[in-house]
Amino acid sequence: KNEVEQSPQNLTAQEGEFITINCSYSVGISALHWLQQHPGGGIVSLFMLSSGKKKHGRLIATINIQEKHSSLHITASHPRDSAVYICAVIGGTDKLIFGTGTRLQVFP
Amino acid sequence: ETGVTQSPTHLIKTRGQQVTLRCSSQSGHNTVSWYQQALGQGPQFIFQYYREEENGRGNFPPRFSGLQFPNYSSELNVNALELDDSALYLCASSQTGVYGYTFGSGTRLTVV
Quick one: pLDDT band at residue A38, thresholds 50, 70, 90? Predict the structure, then answer.
């Protein structure tokens, strides 16, 4: 069993839909990253959070430390949001542990 | 501030050859981590360098080795390349004690 699990693995949406991607982890963490990876491979950090909730534009990330769960929400989704979204946690040794990613496709 | 730069962006090597990938860390960051991402998979931790020494290693054989230089840039070396080494290699820099990571765009290695 992976230490970081994401769901769903693949997600298809129509433009304008509200999207939720979930991440559960089984290790103690100091922080959690939500990352976006486009087809070219480069990774962009969207959020880093260790408690509560953060919002940036149409993106919202929440984390529940007690339940070891985080969610990434995208409001009013757009085709340019199509990418792989990866949850990565910073474990006890300050190393990143990645989930396998959620592939999102938003159609016009 | 500059981001993380990786070179080359793409590389094709023959099985058995050796390869060196390079990464420059973001200004102010002293730690560099390397990850291997196979197609359709999440990145896997290879190793991390801090103050020019290896500071943690994932489940990769010794033919994967690295270096960190005084300016905190880093190299990943892979000897005796195997077909399964074909992957995207990602580098990320960070500052010890601060949890934000900055990622490079990766080097896509193809072993034929």
Answer: confident
